[in-house]
Structure formats: C-alpha cells, structure tokens
C-alpha cells in the first residue's frame, strides 16, 4: 500500500506538472485511425500517427485479420517454444527475411522487446557497444541489460565514433548501433559511413528501422536500402506497429546464427506470449501491400515534400528529410500552447518536451501520411502559420 508520505509527494509532483502546463493528458479517440479522427467529440486532421502508408485500416488488412481470427482463434495462451508457434508465425518470419534479404527472423510483441532482448544474449563484459546519442529509449534500455562496455557517440558524428572505435579496438566483439530514421528529428543515419567504419574496425552493425521500414527506400526496405547498405548490416530490428499495419509486434532479422541464438536466450521472446494470429496474418498482408502498392510511397513522398516546403516558406524551423517533420520551438510551454491552439483549429499534433527530447529541443512533431490529401496538407500549414504568428514564433 502506498504510504501517505509517498502519496503526498506524488500529488505535489503532479500538481507541479499541471501548473507548468506540462501534464501529458491522454485524449481519447472515438474513431479508427485515418487522415481524420474524432477526439473528445471533435473531428480533427490527424498529423501525429505513425500510419505512414495509411494501412492501419486498409480493407485487405482487415479482411486478413478476420480470416485469421476465424481460423486460428484470438490468442495462443503460450510462449513460442512451448505451444505458441503457428504455421503463420513461421510464414511471417520468412516473409520478413525475404523482404529485408536476410537469412532469418524472430518475432517479438513489440520492437521495444526486440531491442530489449538483443544485447544481453550476444554481448558480455569483453565486448563493446557504440550507440548514437539520439537512439531510441528501447535501444538505451536494451544496452543497459548487457554487461558489455557502453560508449555513446555524438549524433551522427563519424569522427567521434571512429575515435571511440580506435580506443577500444581490442574488444572481443564490437557493435555499432543506430536508429535508421531518428524518431524525433526525422533524419537518416549516415549508414554508408557507419558500415565503412565497422568494416575498418571489425565491428557489427545494428539498425533499428522502425520509422523506415515500408516508408523509405526504392522498394520500401527502409534506411538500409535508401543508403545502399542492405547487404552490409548484420542486425535489423523494426516494428509491425507503424507503417506495416499499425497494430503491434516487432522483429529482429539477420544472420541465421544470430537469430537462432536469440531464440535460445532472448528473454522477451522466451517469456512473452506469442504474437496474436490476427496481427501475424494482417502483417503478412501488409508486406504484400508494401510490395504491390509503390504508389503509397510516392504519395507519401509528395505530401512530405509539400509540407516541408510550405512550412519553411512560412518561416518555421523544421528538421530532417523524412515524413517525420519536427517543428522546433525550444520551449516546453510554447510547444504545449501550440498543440492546444492547433487542436482548436482542427489539427491534432502533440508537443514534445523533456524527458522525451532534451531541454532546449522542445517541438511539435508532425507525421505525414500517404492518406493525407493536398487539401489536408495546405490546411495544416495555414493553421500552423496563423498560430505561429499569434504566438510570436514566426512573423
């Protein structure tokens, strides 16, 4: 039972967040994901979902999920190694391996689990892990579970990375770990340079491509394809919960020996229930749609370029090159105020501030989708511009 002292302390801390306007409230949706959603009874244009290709409610994905529910049931009530592996689990793992041109794949409940379960089985106190300072929280937490020595290099700074590799050249195993597309800044990791350094210093390379898979690259194979290093990366982790259907589930794909070792030793895999059949079947269909509907990526690219161009012309500080478009405000209360004002204008976006981003890097993160229309994009830019002037962000 929570003691009175602890309860009072938590009440005071929460009150402080309220007073500063930094309390993260959960707005409740009453419609499915789409270019528009209904939140608290208000219809809004949705510019903050990871639904990059608009597949979250694609009729073919819904149909695949229905058929799977009828054939395989709702859940497996088991982990994979006991009695929780269906034929379609193996099929999806092969679909993913084929898509990323790797040898094998292991499924997880989420990519947070994939990243949480990859380091501890593979690396020990004789090894070194080199991680970009802006890597996702799941990578940071996963690395913490390992006994390996940890080194954080400055964001995308290859000279700093090489310096750390030189200093630790004698480590038994070395791995460079990076997001493919950085979730807050929307930029792509310099994977060509990273792979060159890995080859020079005999290190492995791991890429978390949650925001790249299905989204970028000529055929949607993500940041590794976009930068021409698909065959040079040893481990790719990603999610089924963003562009690839938007529900849940993650995976690690790579060399068969690595994947088989994870099946034997990775805790989130061994001790979590199997991915539900409806998600597995829908994800198989999602990969098929990514392969057969390149027009979704074309439309996404056009929407992204239009939004970025118009926002820059309006005077906003926007970063990155991908459908993740951070609008830098550098003040937490300003980010919250702008988010609230945009809500009233009919635009749903969220303000980001510490600890989600560093202090001084507060922002609105806009996410573009293939299902946004040109009218949606221009309406959003107009709303940003009006409120930006009102709040003194632009002139």
Give a short summary of the structure:
With 395 residues, the protein is of the alpha/beta class. It is built from 16 helices and 13 strands.
Please describe what this structure looks like.
Helices cover 44% and strands 15% of the residues. The strands form three sheets. It has a seven-stranded mixed sheet, sandwiched between helices. The chain contains 16 helices and 13 strands. The radius of gyration is 22 Å and the shape is globular. The longest helix has 21 residues. It starts with a helix and ends in a 5-residue tail after the last helix. Helix 2 runs antiparallel to helix 13, helix 14 runs parallel beside helix 16 and helix 15 packs across helix 16. It is of the alpha/beta class. It has two domains: 130 residues, Aspartate Aminotransferase, domain 1 (Alpha-Beta Complex); 234 residues, Aspartate Aminotransferase, domain 2 (3-Layer(aba) Sandwich), CATH 3.40.640.
CATH architecture of the largest domain: 3-Layer(aba) Sandwich
Number of strand segments = 13
Mean pLDDT: 95
Order of helices and strands: HEEHHHEHHEHEHEHEHEEHHHHEHEEEH
Q: Would you identify the CATH H-level superfamily of the largest domain?
A: Type I PLP-dependent aspartate aminotransferase-like (Major domain)
Oligomerization state:
single chain
Structural class computed from helices and strand pairing: alpha/beta
What's the CATH topology label of the largest domain?
Aspartate Aminotransferase, domain 2
Main sheet, how many strands, which sense, barrel?
Answer: 7 strands, mixed
């Amino acid at each position: 039972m929570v003691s009175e002292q602890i309860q009072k302390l938590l009440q005071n801390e929460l009150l402080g967040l309220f007073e500063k306007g930094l309390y993260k409230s959960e707005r409740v949706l009453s419609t499915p994901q789409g270019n528009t959603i209904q939140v608290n009874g208000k219809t809004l244009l949705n510019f903050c979902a990871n639904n990059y290709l608009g597949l979250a409610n694609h009729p073919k994905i819904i149909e695949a999920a229905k058929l799977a529910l009828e054939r395989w049931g709702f859940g497996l009530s088991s982990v994979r190694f006991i009695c929780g592996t269906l034929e379609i689990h193996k099929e999806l793992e092969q679909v993913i391996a084929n898509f990323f041109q790797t040898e094998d794949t292991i499924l997880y409940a989420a990519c947070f689990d994939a990243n949480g379960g990859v380091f501890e089985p593979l690396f020990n106190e004789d090894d070194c892990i080199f991680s970009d300072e802006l890597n996702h929280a799941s990578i940071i937490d996963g690395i913490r579970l390992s006994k390996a020595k940890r080194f954080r290099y400055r964001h995308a700074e290859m000279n700093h990375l090489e310096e750390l590799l030189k200093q630790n050249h004698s480590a038994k195993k070395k791995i460079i770990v990076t997001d493919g597309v950085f979730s807050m800044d929307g930029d792509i990791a310099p994977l060509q340079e990273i792979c060159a350094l890995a080859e020079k210093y005999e290190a492995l390379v791991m890429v978390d491509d949650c925001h790249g898979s299905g989204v970028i690259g000529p055929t949607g194979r993500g940041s590794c394809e976009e930068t021409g290093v698909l065959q040079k990366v040893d481990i790719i982790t990603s999610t089924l919960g963003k562009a690839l259907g938007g529900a849940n589930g993650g995976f690690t794909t790579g060399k068969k020996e690595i994947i088989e070792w994870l099946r034997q030793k990775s805790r989130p895999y061994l001790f979590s229930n199997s991915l539900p059949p409806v998600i597995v079947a829908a994800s198989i269909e999602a990969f098929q749609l990514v392969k057969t509907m390149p027009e979704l990526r074309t439309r996404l690219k056009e929407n992204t370029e239009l939004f970025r161009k118009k926002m820059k012309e309006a005077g906003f500080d926007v970063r990155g090159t991908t459908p993740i478009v951070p609008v830098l405000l550098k003040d937490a209360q300003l980010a919250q105020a702008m988010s609230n004002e945009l809500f009233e204008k009919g635009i749903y976006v969220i303000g980001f501030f510490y600890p989600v981003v560093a202090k001084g890097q507060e922002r609105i993160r806009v996410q573009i989708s293939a299902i946004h229309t040109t009218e949606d994009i221009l309406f959003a830019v107009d709303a940003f511009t009006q409120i930006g002037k009102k709040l003194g962000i632009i002139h």
